[in-house]
Each structure stands twice: as structure tokens, then as C-alpha cells.
Write a structure and sequence with these properties.
Shape: globular
Number of strands: 34
CATH topology of the largest domain: Quinone Oxidoreductase, Chain A, domain 1
Radius of gyration: 31 Å
CATH superfamily of the largest domain: Medium-chain alcohol dehydrogenases, catalytic domain
Number of domains: 4
Number of helices: 20
Distance between the termini: 50 Å
Structural class: alpha/beta
Strand content: 15-25%
CATH architecture of the largest domain: Alpha-Beta Complex
Helix content: 25-40%
Length: 743
Amino acid sequence: MRRATLKVSGADVVIDEIPIPEPPPKGVVVKTKFCGICHSDALWLENVVNDKENPNHEFAFPLPITLGHEISGEVYKIGEDVDSDLKIGDNVFVYPWIGCLDCDDCRNDRTQICSKDGNTLGWQHGGGFGSYVVVQESKFAVKAPPTIEMHHGGMLTCSGLTTFSAVSKIKPHFEGTKGTQYLLVIGTGGLGLFCLQFAKFLLPPNTRIIAADIEENKLATALEHGADDVIWWDRSKTPKETPDDDDDFVRQMLEKSNGGFHGVIDIVNCPATVTRAMKGMRKGGALALVGMFGGNLDLHLRNFIRLVPTVYGIKVGSFSTFCKLLEFVAQHPIKYPPCSFHKLEELQDVLNLMNARKITGRGILQYIYQTRGMMEQASLTAPGVPLEIQRGEIPEPPPKGVVVKTQYCGICHSDVMWLKNAADVTKDPKNTFAMKMPATMGHEVSGQIFKIGALVDDPSLKIGDDVLVYPWIGCGNCFDCDNDRTQCCLGRMHKVGWQHSGGFGTYVTVSESKYAVKAPPNISLNVGCMLTCSGLTTFSAVSKIKPYFEGKTGQQTILVIGAGGLGLFCLQFARALLPKGTRIVSADVEQAKLDTALEHGADDVIMWNAAQTSDGSPADDDEFVRQMNEKSGGGFDGIIDIVGSNGSVARALKGLKVDGALVLVGLFGGQLTIDLRRFLWRVPNIHAIRVGPFSNFLKMVDLISKTTIKYPPITYFKQEELNGAIEQLVQRKINGRGILKYY
């Protein structure tokens, strides 16, 4: 491999060759494609001393040293103990701020501030100024999202991450306030241009963003990258000196900010910029110090206290923040700083240009290397008839989609409702339950990837992967789909088990590959299938009601109506997501289900038997409401109704505390008569849940992969037993969830 190495303090880098290294047991070797040339690289190369000669020096390091920490490339070799889905050839962005991995900071996602001997790439370990890089632990080689170009991704590991962290840190100071707010970004090089972009997307829309720099050409670029206005700090003196006309610059700052900035992010961080920033801030403002220029700041402590500022020091960012950054950038139209590309042999010249401030944007090193079978479906062929097993060829995947071989499919109450009420769309197109026949339902699907479409651009997805299928796929082109509400799409939808054949068949077509989500190792497919509907619906319901329980004192109570499969999930999510100490009560008409509810997180239960109360006496609705008030101490703070009938909703409204929250989930249906004046006086907050968006599904899967969930009881059925299973569900003879099991 070739590398540009500093061997002697104060000298130029030297290009030499060494053998390509082997990966550590839990790590990987990455073949470098691009590496950003950071100002901190230039700073270290200019000031570094040999640690053997002066171990206490600020820039003491063992020599030789190969810098370069903004690395993107492809996996070249994988350690023998790596337990991940990384494979050779995967495009990755390398998080370089790797600590000792054994101290409190490293164990708490703060590897970037590890105080022990770390494994930071381009510092303690050879970096991207070499053609191959050793990453000590494989998780720090993060798969590149397909929407982020490789040469851009390298910048995100430092300049992008640092400014994303700075804006994230300062963001709370801008939230929840009225009127126009002002942010100043000092410095408009590569980091400053990123900072302007992140501020534009992350801060409230009433924020006005101003950029300041000493070079007019950079300010013109800043206006193209999100700045609303600029301040030209034109002077011939270096940033370390205090200019004679500083008062004029402060006057401009106060004028541009209507009396002072609410926040300042200083990308330079020298005494002159920090002093000027504090003069241009309003009282109670926030200052984030980012740059590495350095120097000694004389701070007038009494004036500092009078200013009541909040000052943050930003040292790049944590690994979790880096992952959030990649997700954010993959979803937002970021305009990257201008890039100039250079060969390894040109590195020293580029470093010299950077020190002379003659590079706009970012300088980047660029390395140049040289069966068709049969499927079976249990389909509805006409309204009101039993499902019929039909056989046909296994489908081909759409260009951007996949075919999944079904392993398990939950039998949902909504499947039963549609099957019992279905109408032929060609004969009764206006019917609520109109559908094209034959129809193969089943939307709670888990299985293995069987075929992959020709245009799928996800190298991590491979045949045989265990996946959970998010079925609520929309048209992909409407407002709802563009805003992560595909489950509400009214266009030409691609919902699995509705518009497209579902898991009552042995193979399922998924129109877009991202909706076939890899199953975490600790979520088995037999329970994972339930998450796509019953799990997601109740997770969304608890997430919706959660804000009504936060930030309050005293005992709070929630009622979950219905203790079938969805109800048992709901109890679990309520226990996991609601504040500690929330009392959870379950109500149902069957004692067996209430017994199961107590095993799944309920603190208490209410028997809603239409014939009698738990003590054997006749019951009417007033008696049930009395029990609800008794169990809740005068009314429930929140109620989640899994049934959704006129009776259950009416009872819920009577048992709800004034200003309480009611979330409607169930599709039982009916007509509800409401006394509007009484309704208004009780000021309830009512929400309806329609399963959940794709983002909620991913959050739920992540939660369950980290939390112990006790799944509802499962009864398995073969495909040929499906009609009988549906009848058992209608007759309420299945406790928990009925699931089709294939193979």
C-alpha cells in the first residue's frame, strides 16, 4: 500500500510503500477511495513533535504518523470474529474517533473524548492518507447509504459530524420561542458551509442565519449554501490580532441581528472571533466553539456573568450522532461544499494551499485503483365463499423490489373483517370492502429474500436474508407518501395482502426493497411477523398517547380495552414507553384473556362481562363505569381502545378523566351518539390510529431488539387449515395470535 507519512517534525510528508495490513479479529481493512484533507490535519502536521523527545507537548505523537480521518472506501478484508452483515466490496464511511473501547466514555458512546490511548484513525492509527486503513472494530465502518456519494461521505465523518453536532447542541436554545431569532456562523470554509445547511434544516423556520468571514469570495459561496445574509470582516491582519476597527464589526453584528445574536457557532475559534462573538450576542445566548485555531482568551468574568451565556465546546461527535447524521443527510437535499480532488502525490501542495487560505470548500484525496418453481395461495375467489388454494408460478420481482419466501403470516382480525364483508370491485365498486378477486390476503409477513430486482441498489440485501415485511406501501408519489405516511395513501397503493397478494401465499412480492426489513438476530420470524401490524399499531398508539403522560407528577393510569393479540402487545409497549410508575389496567369480556393480560404487564383488570360482574351480580353500564373510576382513582389519564365499537368507545369516554386522551385502534365499528356539550366540557383528546408509518416500524423493531417483550400466545396453523382458523377467530376461540406456518 502507498501512504503519505510525516517522519520528522517540521518536514514535508513523504510517500512510501508498506504491505497491506491484516484486519484485527473484530475489525476490517478498508480500501480508501476518498479522504478529506481537514484543517486539523494541516494544524497537526505543522505543529507535531516526536513524543519521545517532548512527551508533554500538546502535539506530541509517535512518529512516523499517517494522518487523514475523513475516510470513505470499500471493505477489503474482514476479521475472523466479525459478527455482522458486512461483506467484502461494501461501500463504507469510516467513523474515525475510536477510543480505547474500555473506559467509561467509550462505554457511554463518547469514544471521541476517550482520555486513554485510543484507536483514532489518522492519529493513533494510520489514516486515509494511506491507500488502506485498519478499522479496529467493524461497526465503525458504516455502510454508505445509496443516496450519498462516496466523495461526499468522507467529509461527513469530521466536518459534517462536527457541525451537525454543533447545530444539534445549540438547537434547544432556538426551540419554543416567538419572533425572529438570529444565528451567526463564523467561518465559511468547508465546515461553515455544512453548518449553514444543517442550521437551515434543523433550526426553527423563524431563524435568520448570518455568515461572517474575512474573505469575500467565501461569503458569496455562503449565500448559496443557506446564509440569509453575510458580514464581511475585511482586514489584512491575522485572526490572532485584534483589529482597530472591531467596534465597527460589532456594530454590524448588532445591526444584522436586531440587537444581538441568539446563538453563535464559531468555526474559527481564536481569541478575536470568540471575543467578537460574545460582544455580538444578546443576553442568555448560546455560543458553540468548534474551530481548532486556538489561542489564549482574556475573559472579563463579571461581564461574562452579566451576559449569562451558555458556552459549548464541540469535539466532533459521538458514533450515534454520526449514524443520525448519515440518516439525516440521506433524507435531505444537502448542498455540499465545493470539492477539489487531488492525487496522493499532491498532498503536501494542498496542505500548503490550505495554510495560505487558497482552497474554497474541501480538498479531497482521490485514490484510483484499478430457478422457476410453483407457489400456493389461499385466495378468496368470490364474496362469501371459503378460501381456495390456488397454484401458479413464483413471481418475478419488480425492478426496485424483492420476492419474499413466506415463513410465517399472522392471521389478523382485519383479514377476517374483509373476508367476511368482501365485495367484488367489478360488481360493487363503491362498497367499502370492494376488492379485486381472486384476492390473497395476509399482511403480517416474515420470511426470506428469494429474488432481488435488477435495480435494487442495496448491497447489504442478499438472497436468504431473514426479513420482516412492512406491508403498508403507498403509491410513492403523493403528499402522504412523501411525508412518511404511506399507510394513509389514497393513490395507487401497493399494500401487501390488499392490493398485492399477501402472506396467505407462499411467496410475496414487495414493490420496493427497503420495506423488506432485515430481522434483528434476537427477533425470530415466528414473532416478527406480528410486529408488522398488531405490534406496529399498538406501538403507534402508545407513542401517540405518551406525551399526555410525560412531565406530570402523581399517579397516572391508563386503560387498555381488549386483551387479545393487539391488547397484549399494547400492555408491553405501555410498560416500556410510558413513565415509570404508570398504572396499567386491562379490560375485556373474557376472563381467560384477562388472566393472560396480567402476565403481560397489566397491573389490574376489569371484567366487562355483559351478563354479570366479577362478583356474580347483574351488571349494567353504570356498574362498569363505577369500576373504571374506582380502578383509576377518578378517571383514566389515557385509554387505548383496541376494540373500537360504539359500546367500548362510549364507555371509554365515561371513564376518561377531564382533558384525558383516547386513542381509537380497533375496527369493530358501529355508530356512536355523542352529547356534544358534555363532550366539549370534558375536553377530551381523541386520536385515531391506522397502523403506523414506516419510520415507526423501524423504531419499534429497534426498541424490541433492545427490550424484553413477552409476546402474545401463538397458535400455529397450516395453510390448508386457514379457513378453520378464521372461524375460530370469529368465535373468539384463539387466545393471543393465530399464525400461518410454512415449511
